[in-house]
Amino acid sequence: MSIFLYKLSRLAFRRRWAMVGFWVVLLVAGGVGAATLSGPTVNTLSIPGTESQAAQDLLAERFPESSTGGASARIVFESPAGTTLADPAIRQSVSELVSALGKDPEVAAVSDPYASGGMSPTGTIGYMQVSYTADSMDLPDSSKELLESAVHDASDSGLAVDVAGNVLMESSAEAMGEVIGVAIAAVVLTVTFGSLVAAGLPLISALIGIGIAICTITIATGFIELGSSTTVLAMMLGLAVAIDYSLFIVSRYRSELRDGHDPEIAAGRAAGTAGSAVVFAGLTVLIALAGLFVVNIPFLTSMGLAAAFAVAVAVVISLTLLPATLGFAGSRVLSRSDRRLLASGGELTHRKQSEGAGSRWAKFVIRRRVPVLLASVLGLGLLAIPTFGINLSLASPPVPDT
């Protein structure tokens, strides 16, 4: 394995233009395919063979109008002090709210709180359920704006109104989370390596790899049924392992350069050593994710296989594209002080490298191993205290207190 990776890395290093061009063309082709061949995703989470799934299937069969599988909103309202929902003026406001929402062509059903019994025993608090034909990600902005406008009008009439449900959920937060994660990784890598080039190579490789993986998964939605959360898991895991695996190889490449090796030889040795660890680490993750197939839950199976594909792409990228980009970077992955020392004919020995803050911290831990161990256990125990009050459940939008 090491010899093969050594030769593969040197080949990618020498043929760097061809290797980079291949991956860029693959990324562009994936983008075109995702734009033209993709299909809709689904938000239905089914667990075949369970009693709860059988109950859901029966409800969908008997009451299809309330089991659309789309977005939903629950509107809770309270009458002004000294009044009840039975007062003519208040009842008129609620009826206008029901009527306004029922005019939306995307609305499948709106429950009337007076007819469905959706009121408290005191008659001051009530609720209504709104079901949509499309899920929250595919729901047009006009439907969301109509809901907000209707609720605002009801509030102006004196009712205290709150809305819960997934109808107003946005996907921008997920995308922003990935952007923030990449930005933080860039800062950490720059500080760690002391070189923008060394910090940029793992990020560039990771972004190209995750782009190809996500585009491929998006193309697959045109042929097979995949959940809307499938790409989210694939992106998170793919981005994490791609940066991690590339970091292994870049770090070893820098070490080989410090030992005075030629850049091409250094790239080959980095792939032959750290690259072997990348392969075995990737295989471990692949096996773990593919194991989700055993539980026989369709949405978990699709998520696991998609994430495993993203990890596989990350491994291949780290062993082919990364060595090619190292060919362009050369010795610029080192800090300026290291490059000046090498240019002057000096040698960066392992002794000098061991004088960093990490080495000093490791020596401190070894000398004070018992106090450090006790402090670590105590710290982990303190961090674990909140888990005693944790409530495990599926993620859902919060419901405001009424």
UniProtKB/TrEMBL annotation:
Q: Which residues form the SSD domain?
A: 179-328
Keywords carried by this UniProt record: Cell membrane, Membrane, Transmembrane, Transmembrane helix
- The primary site where this protein sits is membrane
Q: Which GO terms describe its cellular component?
A: plasma membrane
InterPro entries assigned = Acrflvin-R (IPR001036), MMPL_dom (IPR004869), Mycobact_MmpL (IPR050545), SSD (IPR000731)
Q: Which Pfam families match?
A: MMPL
Q: Provide the topology term for how it sits in the membrane.
A: Multi-pass membrane protein
Per the record, the similarity remark reads:
Belongs to the resistance-nodulation-cell division (RND) (TC 2.A.6) family. MmpL subfamily.
Q: What is this protein called?
A: SSD domain-containing protein
Q: Which organism is the protein's source?
A: Rhodococcus erythropolis
